[in-house]
Every structure is written in C-alpha cells, then in structure tokens.
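User: Before I run my own analysis I want an independent prediction to cross-check against. Here's the chain; please return only the structure tokens and, at the end, one sentence I can use as a sanity check.
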Amino acid sequence: MQGIDFLFSIAVLVFSVVIHEVSHGYAANALGDPTAKYAGRLTLNPLPHLDAFGSLLLPLITYWAGGFIFGWAKPVPYNPYNLSNQKWGPAAVAAAGPAANLLVALIFGIFVRIATAVELPSEFASIATTIVFINILLAVFNFVPIPPLDGSKVLFSALPSRYGYVQSFLEQWGFVLLLLFIFFFFQVLFPVISLLFRLFTGL
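Assistant: Structure tokens:
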C-alpha cells in the first residue's frame, strides 16, 4: 500500500509541475513571447517537461528522507526581451506558475469540502488532499525570492533600479542560497502551507 501511495504522489507531482511550467509558457505567449510554443512546451504531455533529477530522483530522496514528495520539471524556455511589458512582464510570467498551482489546490480543496460534507468514501478525500498539499507546497516554495525560483523574478521587477546590487548578489549566489534554504530553512514555509491547506480544505 505504501508503494501505491508513493507512486500516486509521484503522479500528482508530475501533473502539478507540468501545469506549473505550461502556465509559464502560456503567460509568456500571451505577453508576446512564443518561445515556449515553438519549443513544443505548451502541452500537458509530461514527457517534454520531465527532468531526470527534479522529476524522478529528487522526489525519491525527499520521500524517503522526510516523508513528503517534492521536485520540479524542466523550466519552460522564454525570452523576456520579447515581452510586451519589459518591467512587469517577467513577474507576470513567473507568477503564473505558482498561481496555477494555487488554483489547482483551490479546486481540489473544494472537492475535499464536498467529500467531507456528503460523506463520500475516504479514498476520494485522501486523493484530493494529496493534490491540494503538493500544489500548495510547490506554489509557496516557488514564491521564495531566491533565484532561480519564481519569487525572485517578482522581486526583481518590484525592486527600484537603485537596488540593482541586490539582484546582482542574489543572481551570483542564488544556487548556494537556495541549497542553504532547502537544507536549513525549508521548515519556515510549513506554517504558510498549513494555513493555506486549512483555508482550502477546511481540515
């Protein structure tokens, strides 16, 4: 049974990260950049999006190390210089991914509430709660303002030009800072994740 739960969680993760990346591509396309479209990445077929480490190996590591599933897909390519709005366009493209995950979480959170209210089989609620949790986790994590996460693009668009040194520092040290965050500070996200989970599901 544990193996089935793990495989289902992997399937939910893949479904969620594909929606995340495709949303980036559609947002970029809507704002004038067809790079993702021409690269064949505006598809829900998971195969073009899968990343050997982020979509397969990392979920295994996080599941066996911490009991939860986490990972990512290949970033959808886009050219920010093609965007119609050069200041806020990159932020809109970046925010589209986490926003899509929150929308998925909200929809399945409503399913959880319905399942609880009409006393549907517990398996239905269990499936929906897994989808809600993984999508909230992806959204909250990706809003962290450390490159290459989506939150950094939003931060850079909002920063006045006089704070360009902040962007330079984060871009230079982003990978190191991200590793430090994942290994030592990831738990600070869980109060936010728990709050959103309760708001969406009522559990």
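Sanity check: Residues 2-30 form the longest helix (29 residues).
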